[in-house]
Amino acid sequence: EAIVELSGVRKSYGVGTAVEAEVLHGIDLRLEPGEFVALVGPSGSGKSTLLNLIGLLERPTSGTLHIGGRDTTTLDEAELTGLRGRSIGFVFQFHHLLPGFSALENVLMPAIIERGVAGPDDLRRARELLARVGLAEAEHKRPSQLSGGMQQRVAVARALALSPRLILADEPTGNLDTRSANEIFELLLEFNRDTGAACLVVTHDPSLAARCQRRIEIVDGRVAN
Ligand code: ADP
Ligand code: ADP
C-alpha cells in the first residue's frame, strides 16, 4: 500500500475571486513506504504547494489524496491535524524553531502537542535524537545560540520526534553552506534507512537530487516525468 497517493489533484488559490488561479493541474503520484524521492522543478512550478497538500496543511481543490491508505478528503480539520501529527514530520527551509525554548524543549514539542505532556520516554527519545544529530552537548542552548546548520539539525530531530512514517522537507538545505547541507541530507538518508520512513525532499541542488532513489519533476503545475 502506498504511503502517499494523489489522483487528479488540482489546487487553485483565490477560488471565487477575480484572482482565482489554478497552480496544480491534475497531479497523479504515488510514494511507496521507504522511498526517498526528490521533488524538483523550476521556481514557481508548484512544489511547495504540492508538499503542503501532502502534508495536510492545505486541501486540494479537487481530486483525492490518500495518506497511508486513508482518504484524507473526507476528514475534518481535527482528524487532519491528528493524522498529520502522528504520521508526518516536516523540515522547512527555515527551521521555525521556537526561539524562547531550548533545543531539547523544541524536540519535545511534538510530543507535548500530541499528548499534552512529555513523558520519560519522550525525554529519552528527544535526547537520543539530539545525540544522533550531534547536539547532545547543546540541549540547553536556545536556537539563537546555535549556528544555522545546528539549528537545522535541531529541526530534523524535532521532525523525527514522533517516528513519522513520512518526512516532508521543503528545501531543507537551501539556507545552508555545502558542508551543513550535506550533513542534513545524510541525517535524512540515515533516518530513511534505519526506520523505513518515506522521504519527499524539495531540492534545487542537482547533486543532492542525484542521491535520491527517484526524482519527480514538477513543471507548470504538472508532473513532467
Ligand atoms: P515552488 O515551490 O515550485 O516555487 P509554489 O508552490 O510556491 O512553487 O508556487 C506555485 C504558484 O502558486 C506560484 O505562482 C505562486 O505564486 C502561487 N501560490 C503559492 N501559494 C499561493 C497562495 N497562498 N496564494 C496564491 N498563490 C499562491
Ligand atoms: P518557494 O519558492 O521557496 O516555494 P515562495 O517564496 O514561492 O517559496 O513561497 C513562500 C510562501 O508564500 C509559501 O507558503 C507560499 O504558499 C506563499 N506564496 C507564494 N506565492 C504566493 C502568492 N502569490 N500569494 C500568496 N502566498 C504566496
TrEMBL record:
GO terms for molecular function: ATP binding; ATP hydrolysis activity; transmembrane transporter activity. GO terms for biological process: lipoprotein localization to outer membrane; protein localization to outer membrane; response to antibiotic. One of its GO terms (cellular component) is membrane protein complex. The keyword Mitochondrion does not apply. It comes from the Bacteria. Keywords: Antibiotic resistance, ATP-binding, Cell inner membrane, Cell membrane, Hydrolase, Lipoprotein, Membrane, Nucleotide-binding, Transmembrane, Transmembrane helix, Transport. Its EC number is 3.6.3.-. The keyword Thylakoid does not apply. Residues 4-223 form the ABC transporter domain. Belongs to the ABC transporter superfamily. Macrolide exporter (TC 3.A.1.122) family. This is Lipoprotein-releasing system ATP-binding protein. It comes from Quisquiliibacterium transsilvanicum.
